[in-house]
Design goal:
By secondary structure, the protein is of the alpha+beta class. The chain has three domains: 2-72; 121-214, no CATH class; 218-365, Ribbon (Umud Fragment, subunit A), CATH 2.10.109. It contains nine helices and 20 strands. The protein has helices at 2-28, 34-53, 58-72, 80-101, 137-144, 186-194, 225-228, 286-292, 337-340; strands at residues 103-107, 121-124, 146-152, 157-158, 164-166, 169-174, 177-182, 201-202, 207-214, 218-222, 236-240, 254-261, 266-270, 273-276, 279-280, 315-316, 321-325, 343-344, 348-357, 364-365. α1 runs antiparallel to α2 (34-53), α1 packs parallel to α3 and α2 (34-53) runs antiparallel to α3 (58-72). It starts with a helix and ends with a strand. The relative contact order is 0.12.
Length: 367
């Protein structure tokens, strides 16, 4: 067995030296001296003869070949650490190229695309399970995207009112001290106060809220498709918001919505149905599903600022514009094209085509 392993190691080493010689010749044969190239050829021939006949000083032949190769093209033999570093750099470069030109990952932060895609969800009143321990909580999160979080009072005192923004967090005053929560908990905290599920007074160390946090869907976007094909109605597409000037729209970021209107169309909502140029949109069929779903129904946005409140209201798209709306079109649930209008063609990154994490109900091809 040792003999076999030794032969395999020797064969690998010979292959490396011969590769070194070929690489040197390919890199510098147009500018290296004829003398150095002849020495390299001779050293390579000697090594091949020793390999073929099994006679001669193999180590010495390798040493001579390495020296000849270094005269033609000076190089340093890489250590395993250097080789691994080079491999990682190449892999990262390839990943960045794929991200830039082919497929790019995005995550869904809000619930505007429910029930098709989930944003971050918070379930209050959660109880700690047997998997929420230091050993298993990370594997649980890695597979399901769920985590258990407790928020405790840092001081004793009364609750000072509704939550307010503090940097990129949400704060609630307890005993005059701001208590910070993730921004995605804003709606849940407001609901707790309105429904009196939040106490008026807390002791230091008392649990304010225990929640199960479910990560939003993480998707891959096909950045190539729109280079060859026009966007289609029904596409769930990611677009840049930098040209959208509307209160509440975060500029310099990306939104994901469903494409409901195409260039030059007149879009209306009548009897909960999407209407384009006077015709009810029935294709793709998900529009009818959204319109008839009792929970997530397509309807008029009654929130102030909406352009589609009454059946006669319409949005006229320009020759380079597409109208984007969230699937969750209940009032206040989707800040979308009903408010800020059309999105220019060049702002689109591409359509979502795969949910790669978490491994829950939406994992797989986006529909």
């Amino acid at each position: 067995m040792k003999s076999i392993l030794k032969k395999r190691a020797l064969k690998k080493e010979l292959k490396e030296y011969l590769h070194l010689a070929r690489h040197a010749r390919h890199m510098r044969e147009d500018i290296a001296s004829e003398k150095d190239l002849a020495s390299l050829d001779a050293a390579e021939a000697v090594l091949l003869e020793v390999q073929r006949s099994g006679q001669g000083d193999l180590a010495k032949a390798c040493e001579i070949l390495e020296a000849a190769a270094n005269k033609v093209y000076p190089s340093v033999r890489k250590s395993p650490a250097m080789e691994w570093t080079e491999t990682i750099i190449v892999a990262l470069g390839a990943a960045m190229a794929i991200r830039a030109f082919f497929f790019q990952p995005f995550k869904i932060p809000t619930g505007s695309m429910q029930p098709t895609l989930n944003g971050i969800r918070v379930e209050a009143g959660a109880e700690k399970s047997v998997f929420d321990n230091p050993l298993t909580k990370f594997p649980k999160w890695l597979v399901t995207g769920t985590s258990y979080k407790e928020f405790r009072a840092e001081t004793t005192g009364p609750v000072g009112g509704f939550p307010y923004a503090m940097g990129n967090k949400i704060a609630i005053d307890i005993g005059g001290v701001p208590h910070l929560f993730p921004s995605y908990m804003h709606s849940e905290l407001v609901d707790m106060i309105q429904t009196r599920r939040m106490k008026a007074f807390y002791e230091k160390g008392e649990t304010i809220v225990a929640v199960k946090v479910i990560a939003g869907d993480h998707i891959l976007v096909n950045k190539m498709k729109y280079n060859f094909m026009s966007p289609e109605r029904g596409d769930i597409s990611v677009f840049d918001t930098r040209n959208i000037d509307y209160p509440g729209v975060r500029t310099g970021t990306f939104y994901i919505k469903r494409m409901v209107g195409l260039p030059n169309e007149k879009i209306q909502i009548q009897n909960r149905r999407l209407v384009a140029d006077g015709e009810i949109v029935g294709d793709p069929p998900m529009f009818e599903k959204i319109a008839t779903d009792p929970v997530y129904s397509g309807g008029h946005a009654t929130t102030p600022g909406s352009r589609l409140v009454a059946p006669d209201d319409f949005i006229q798209l320009g020759p380079n514009e597409h109208l984007m709306m969230g699937d969750n079109t209940k009032p206040n649930m989707s800040l979308d094209g009903r408010f800020f209008g059309g999105v220019e063609r060049e702002m689109f990154q591409g359509p979502a085509f795969f949910v790669y994490w978490p491994f829950r109900e939406h994992w797989g091809v986006v529909r």
